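REQUEST FORM: STRUCTURE PREDICTION
Request ID: SP-0412
Submitted by: Lab K.M.
Chain count: 1
Length (residues): 335
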Amino acid sequence: MATAYYHPSLVPQLTDPPLGSKHFTSFALGGVSCTCAAGAVAQDRSTRGHVLVTMKAIRKATGDTAGGTSVQQVDDALASIVGADNLSTGYWHWPRVAKKIAEEGRGFLWSVRYRKIFQYMKHQQHGSPQKDLICGSDRERGFGDQVPIGGGPAGEADWHAIFAHMWLASGESVVIRGKTLTGPANERGLVVFDSLCDGRRGSVAEGPVVYPQSLVLDVVADSLLFGKTYGALTDDARVEEGQTPDDVPTRKRTLRYGAQPIHRRFKTVGPSWFRSSPRRDPNDPRENVVRWLPAGAPLELYQRTDQGGRMHGSRRWFGNRTGDLWIHANRLEAH
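STATUS: Completed
RESULT:
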């Protein structure tokens, strides 16, 4: 049976043009809210449209008023707004993320350097129709009219947040919110929702776009994170043919590593690490570290396994709802 996806809506970030302006610009809230806009797409996708949150609501919940937000801030803000932690934020090896998108129907709220994406669009065939463009900026150091990509001063590393939705095989087509997207001729492609792709000019892409896998790998290599990439995995958005998004539970627990279901609240005992797997490699104990946690950090955990790597004489580990983040029992106490 074929598998389909729930497709979220694009959330544009440049929504606050100055009074009297004929063009959208990086103005007020919108210009530094790419992570909040991408987070709104992630929330739409994780709940299959059941719980929608605006970019502005997320921005307000982060407490940020000036300089932009991180993926972890958006993760925390969404959890506080909707009462459910639908994101797993950390520093992930890209092959792991790519596999989860392909095989588990997951999405990825992704912080990237934008320059490779911009350079690729500049090398696209001159005169390509807007539907074939991939970039939300047609200016090397900025979007809109004045503020550099990422909202920082000129010379910064143009960090931007996008949302990776699904892979398309070479030549495969899908219709998302009325736009037909097709995989590249000789490699697979990644469907991306970019908050800057609002079609405000004919030289700026509109709607979801497709990055060739070769471009994706260039972006990963350009991230300067030593083989890792920073972002948050979302829930599975797949639905079976003949089903509707309403037929599929939106907060299902995914048990991994021989885990048993639990639901308990903890706090960390001293500074700790979340890991992508409980199977800690004694020869490389930092290999699957994905997020640092300060002492006393509150955690809501949903599964327990006794099949993890041995630490402090115990193999017991606790994981989040989707089984992406794990912490050893020795680092936890009841909250």
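NOTES: The chain has two domains: 3-240, 260-334.
Reviewed by: T.R.
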